[in-house]
Amino acid sequence: MAETLRNAETDQCGDLLDSLRRGRPAAGQDPVKRSQIIDGARRVFIDKGFEAASMNDITREAGVSKGTIYVYFANKEELFEALIEEERGSIFKNMYDMLEKSDDLRQTLVKFGKVLALKITSAKVIQAQRTVIGASDRIPDMGARFYERGPKRGHDKVVAFLNAAIERGLLRIDDVDLAAYQFTELCLASLFRQCIFAYRTKAPSQDEIDHIVTSGVSMFLKAYGTERLVAEESHQTIAIEAKP
User: Fold this and answer.
1) What's the pTM value of the predicted model, to 2 decimals?
2) Cβ count within 10 A of residue 225
3) Which CATH homologous superfamily contains domain 94-242?
4) Cβ neighbours for 110, distance < 8 A, ≥ 6 positions apart
């Protein structure tokens, strides 16, 4: 009986320590050291991929002890997710702000679509997505979190933007959630799959992105634009042509 109680207490302590470890601040105690670890992990993941990379590899590359690395990250999965979050914050920072200031609907959609296509097809983002896809088969929860914290949040912002345009009487959409997906797909037509499967060895040119996004926005507005949108754009064209 006493042994059973001791085992239970040990299990409880282990659970408590695990809980505390999972609940600790993501930044750790030293942001510089944390950045050093993430930089080392980035190089290892790029070189070996998620599956082949080990914490020993990352320890050596980062130039820290194994004890130090576990102060900041519980395991390889947690470290990889922290790296992805840092990369996402750096690459996509302020990208969605342009959707909050939208006087000209078409111009805003084109501008946003070009930035989206440029970033999504960049070498860094493509590499990160390949790594996540490869790891998601073994760790589906990580793939789900990646989607929820990145693509899903961005999608929700596009949905909010489209709903605002509907309220202004510029768009008529029955299924806004689907329309938001359709918009992003139009902006990435042919580009994303060719990049993710390495059919393209180089990122698309700006001219190509401009052509695909402009065409995609025109198709989108032709499907969902209202007569009010057509009238507003007609007035804008007349005003521009009337300028000396």
Assistant:
1) 0.76
2) 20
3) Tetracycline Repressor, domain 2 (1.10.357.10)
4) 213, 214, 217
